[in-house]
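Notes from hallway chat w/ T.B., transcribed later so I don't forget. T.B. wanted the structure written out for a chain they're using in a teaching module, and asked if we could keep both sequence and structure tokens in one place. Agreed to drop them here.
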Amino acid sequence: MRRCELILLGAAIALWGCGRAELTVDDVIDQNTTAVGGRAAIEAVQSIKVSLHISDPGFEADAVYYAARPGKMRIDVSVGGKHVFTEAFDGQRGWEWNGKESKTTTPLATAALQHGIELPGKLFGLHELKQRGHRIELTGREKIDGIDYYALHLTLRDGYQTTLYVDPNSWLITRRRDFRPLHVDIDPTPTTIEQKSWDFRNVGGVQFAFAGSETDLKTGKVLESSLIKEIKVNPPIDSIFFEKVEEK
């Protein structure tokens, strides 16, 4: 091969390499949005009803989680078919019912309930978070269990921080890590918790995880696991449902 041909070949390789630019945070958000179902399908989810089974060490329960835009939630917990506990956030305040009486949740517990609504995977897509006042930064790649994830550092508008891990194979968020208590009103001691999500299924044109777990990364102990039985998209929910518990 002549010298001039070698030079041209080298220049072509260099240009090809330059074309393979690293993705920006907006690129990763766009890829995730498409994988989840697209902007229109995600934003069409105005409310959800999730029936699930929760397993903690030494404790199992069934629950029904409800959420609705612009940012309300409620979870009813049952043991042995009996409704024993409720937590809710009505858009302004949090409250809970312990089987006998209702009371306002602590500020930390209220914040935790609100965070759960805002995080992608329930009502809102990753692409909606910036317009809701949250900040997303791409901190690079991070290899975990052989997968070279895109790591997105998310800061909610109240200062809460977490890292979301986007799997480049599926472009879905399959891990999350943050420093927090599992149940702040039971044990306020924070630890680094990793949440894993898997078994994604299409419901109403949107991908939802039907299985998950939360693990203390310091000890390796599984703190909680959940299996989704059913997800209903856009069930009718009266706004007053988030404001009071129906005594039985």
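Follow-up for T.B.: The first strand starts at residue 47 and ends at 56. Might be a good example for the class.
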